[in-house]
């Protein structure tokens, strides 16, 4: 597909609205036709068909010119608003600096990471607007796969068909225990011997998916004390002595009252990254603003996320 400008696409999508608006502006059929780059007879026929289909006159002759009838004057503001809305929609489809990005992201990334990325990007591209959705890992990937979002900032990253991902940062998973726990002074541990109750995140959360995978690999089923909505809550409940948990290492060091132990089990990591639909899915079209923001996230994200995640 070529890249026609906004006005060209607007003329393609709404020729009759453009005819009426231009006739109202010039009050002259020939000048309106010239402004619209069409033969005068073509414009006259289009205007006649428009009035015939509506069943009312929109213009009337005044000597050598024309003017809108009362019906035309009543309709004109709605026509102009429709054209403005259409221009904005076309600009969002074709313009890198005026587009809209639908972004879905994890709750943990919404505290600091997403605001930092948006603030930096909008400083460079203030015309780009965002539709934001904060939701759990599984919901985020479903939204992206169904076309409800352009990009996802999430973890872990999907491995199935239809979606592409880029790792921005990899966190290590730790067994988080209360500071007076018998294992608190020990080195790396395996999950299988742990007999404590676990504070897990609810199903559908990315960290829960990783914890379940590690548990399956270790061949044991954790005894669940509580299922939390988010990482911060799970970490706080461990500090209160209500159980242990598998969580990403905290960038600023363990939360007071907790100790973080290295895991010997499998791939105890949590990749954080950006995900987008594979080319050819979602209609096969990616607005320029989406590509611009994705490139920015891939460039800046690795510097931002390690200091703010978790």
Automatic annotation (TrEMBL):
UniProt xrefs under Pfam families: HTH_1, LysR_substrate
The HTH lysR-type domain, residue ranges: 12-69
InterPro entries per UniProt: LysR_HTH_N, LysR_subst-bd, WH-like_DNA-bd_sf, WH_DNA-bd_sf
Keyword DNA-binding among record annotations: yes
Entry keyword Transcription regulation: yes
Record-linked SUPFAM superfamilies: Periplasmic binding protein-like II, Winged helix' DNA-binding domain
UniProtKB keywords: DNA-binding, Transcription, Transcription regulation
Domain of life (superkingdom): Bacteria
PANTHER family reported in the protein's UniProt record: HTH-TYPE TRANSCRIPTIONAL REGULATOR CYNR, TRANSCRIPTIONAL DUAL REGULATOR HCAR-RELATED
Similarity field: Belongs to the LysR transcriptional regulatory family.
Protein name: LysR family transcriptional regulator
Organism: Nocardiopsis exhalans
């Amino acid at each position: 597909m070529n890249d026609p400008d906004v006005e060209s696409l607007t003329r393609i999508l709404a020729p009759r609205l453009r005819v009426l608006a231009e006739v109202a502006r010039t009050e002259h059929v020939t000048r309106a036709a010239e402004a619209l780059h069409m033969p005068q007879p073509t414009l006259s026929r289009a205007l006649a068909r428009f009035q015939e289909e509506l069943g009312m006159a929109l213009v009337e002759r005044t000597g050598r010119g024309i003017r809108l009838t009362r019906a035309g004057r009543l309709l004109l503001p709605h026509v102009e608003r429709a054209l403005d809305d259409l221009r904005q929609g076309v600009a969002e489809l074709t313009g890198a600096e005026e587009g809209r990005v639908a972004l879905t992201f994890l709750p943990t990334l919404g505290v600091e990471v997403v605001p930092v990325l948006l603030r930096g990007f909008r400083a460079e591209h203030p015309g780009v607007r965002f539709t934001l959705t904060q939701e759990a890992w599984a919901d985020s990937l479903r939204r992206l796969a169904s076309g409800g979002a352009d990009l996802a900032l999430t973890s872990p990253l999907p491995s199935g068909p239809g979606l592409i991902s880029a790792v921005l940062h990899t966190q290590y998973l730790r067994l988080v225990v209360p500071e007076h726990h018998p294992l608190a002074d020990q080195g790396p541990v395996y999950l299988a011997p742990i007999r404590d109750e676990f504070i897990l995140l609810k199903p559908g959360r990315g960290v829960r998916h990783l914890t379940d995978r590690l548990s399956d690999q270790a061949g044991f089923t954790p005894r669940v004390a509580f299922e939390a909505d988010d990482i911060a809550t799970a970490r706080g409940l461990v500090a209160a002595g209500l159980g242990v948990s598998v969580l990403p290492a905290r960038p600023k060091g363990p939360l007071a009252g907790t100790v973080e132990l290295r895991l010997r089990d499998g791939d105890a990591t949590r990749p954080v990254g950006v995900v987008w639909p594979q080319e050819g899915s979602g209609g096969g079209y990616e607005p320029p603003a989406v590509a611009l923001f994705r490139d920015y996230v891939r460039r800046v994200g690795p510097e931002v996320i390690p200091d703010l995640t978790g």
